[in-house]
Amino acid sequence: MKFRDPDLTNNPINVEHRELGIPPIEQAALHPGKHPILTMAMWLAVFLLIAATGYLISSFLTKNGIADGEQIITETLQSKVFWSAVAVGLIAQIIDGALGMAYGITSTSFLLATGVSPAVASASVHIAEVFTTGVSGVSHVKLGNVNKSLFLRLLIPGILGAVLGAFLLSSIDGKILKPYISIYLLIMGIYIISKVFRRINSAKHEPRHVAKLALFGGFVDSVGGGGWGPVVTTTLVGSGHNPRTTIGTVNFAEFFLTFASAIAFSVLVDEGPWPIVAGLVLGGLFAAPFAAFVCKRLHARTLLMLVGTLISIVSILNLYKSF
After folding, report:
1. Residue 310, beta-bridge partner list
2. Under a CB-based contact definition with an 8 Å cutoff, are residues 3 and 283 in contact?
3. What is the model's pLDDT at position 160?
4. Secondary structure (3-state) at 3
5. What's the domain count of the chain?
6. Which residues of 87-119 are buried (b: 16+ CB within 10 A; e: fewer)?
7. Which positions ≥6 away from 193 have C-beta within 8 Å?
8. What is the mean pLDDT for each group of 10 consecutive residues in the chain (323 residues)?
9. What is the predicted pLDDT for the residue at 322?
10. Is 205 helix (H, G, I), strand (E, B) or coil?
11. Alpha-carbon span 28 to 126, nearest angstrom
12. If you count Cβ atoms within 10 Å of the first and of the last residue's Cβ in the chain, which end, N or C, has fewer?
């Protein structure tokens, strides 16, 4: 497990990130420190990660058996859906590694384009994100990047919003809901583009309406397959709050609402998204070096414009297909 630490130095990349109100680049921490206040929450996250891994493996073997399991794995490796998910996971993780956000929105936009239903797309993204957000959240706690007060203010409303979003998404016909999800993703794409033309006020203000922000962020994150980072992190960082503790706190809270979403989707969604989940995870594993390359070669403004335009175009195509 590699612990990640926001790089807050005044290098050109991070100066540009601060001006745009997006998270700084993260770097590996060789000697992470301790954070005694949130130790219990951190170990709860570790326990949930281990439990989730054990549950997925045991349920797969119980349902299919070892012999059938091998056949299913072989069929999965030969399926177009799996390799499409690998490509989506790679692209989305490169974007997330370079910008510090937009994994869920990017993944869901491309998955919808491949014909996956909104519920299965969001379920797949959130189940895959359980592991990435878990490792990220534990890392931030170990590095002392989590503000206890802000974490508690985000936690319950965020989980509530995520569960409500999962319930709504799974209870409505995907064909009816898909155009609305595409419209939301289009709006988020335009929102990302708009950050290119805005400068962030550096004045710091006490966070207001955090519970409402978390409730809304959790809800749209479940319904749209992503949005917690662009909605919550950029709002708080953009209003002048400490990037290190804000990013660490929002990331740690994201694990718990993602876990809640994953459980809700697992119960409510009949179709098994496991080939897509496996593809997203596998694709994400190889993204780190590409993300580092993108960071060095492209300015944050250029990358925001490219990502926002890409998400917008894919969303427009999804809307066209829906109608």
Report:
1. none
2. no
3. 94
4. strand
5. 1
6. ebbbbbbbbbbbbbbbbbbbbbbbbbbeebbbb
7. 304, 305, 308, 309, 312
8. 57 72 61 54 77 69 59 74 87 78 84 85 86 76 82 92 89 80 88 77 64 91 83 77 77 88 80 78 77 73 84 88 76
9. 76
10. coil
11. 24
12. C
| Whether the Cβ atoms of residue 124 and residue 280 lie closer than 8 Å to each other | yes
The pLDDT of residue 132: 74
Tokens 């897509």 correspond to what residue?
276
- Tell me which residue has tokens 């869901």: 108
CB atoms within 10 A of CB 285: 13
**φ/ψ bin of 139: left (φ > 0), alpha (ψ from -120 to 50), beta (otherwise):** alpha
Of the candidates 99, 97, 95, 98, the residue with the CA atom closest to the CA atom of residue 107: 95
Q: How many whole angstroms separate alpha carbon 224 and alpha carbon 111?
A: 12
- Tokens 């056949």 label which residue? 71
DSSP 8-state class, residue 29: E
Tokens standing for residue 138? 């534990």
Give bridge partners of residue 27 from the DSSP assignment: 5
Structure tokens that stand for 297 in this block = 């070669």
Containing domain of residue 260, as a range?
A: 3-322
- Of residues 268, 274, 241, the one with CA closest to residue 127: 274
Nearest one of 159, 170, 171, 193 to 312, comparing CA atoms: 193
Placement of tokens 């289009």 in the chain: 186
Q: What is the DSSP letter of 144?
A: T
Tell me what pLDDT residue 32 has. 43
Single-letter residue type at 279: G
Beta strands in the chain (DSSP E): 3-6, 26-29
